[in-house]
Amino acid sequence: MASDPPAQADPADSAIDSVSVLSEDSRRRMFAFIRRAKRAVTRDEAAASVGISRKLAAFHLDKLVDAGLLRARYETPGGTRKVGRQPKVYEPTDAQITVNIPDRRHELLADLLLDAVLTEQSDESAAQAAMRAAQQRGRRMGEAARNETRPGRLGPERGLTACERLLDQYGYEPVRETPTRLRLRNCPFHPLAAKAPDLVCGMNQAFLSGYLDGLEVSGVRAALAPEPGECCVRLGSGDSESADDTPQDR
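The structure assignment produced for this chain is given below.
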């Protein structure tokens, strides 16, 4: 029997873990010192920057390494070769930390708009290009998810269950209202959606419709159904949203 694919770490959880590591004052100050240094820093230098012992500094530095905020290696400062073991040095990683509660995905919206600008055709308006870019991105993501999980035939019930992983990952806060209807309690694109609802909500609908197509979910559509404080899109089985799947679709 094939095993389930390994669970991936939730980016939001990872960001919260990183922020919690920086809640300790000495640790946060050492991290800031190392980022400003623009070079690898020894334990002694890090300890001196906040006035603590080398042993305590090593403890805090290792916590920052474990959180993915620093990387460590052995290197002689200045490149001078000396006898004995090289000291351990620390430098920042490329990790970026963003924590939003509720979750926001403005970088996805910006990336879709950039795709639209770069690929706009002569017979398209800017808005049409944005919708197309959003639909194509969603479809590619749906196809990738289907290739990874190989779920077989997906009717409304199983299809919505398969969608929940992406929806949760991207901050939509999906809630199963009925077996064949998902309400999305959070808008990942707020407050930008409020500034340009026709554009942003249209892109959101196109993105989720593309995902359903790529995942090959039958009998489900992404419909505009705006509610105050929630996502403008609802996923459901159209005219019979409260009906169960037929047995062969389950």
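Interim note for the steering committee: Strands lie at 41-42, 70-74, 88-92, 174-178, 181-184, 221-224, 233-236. The mean pLDDT is 83.
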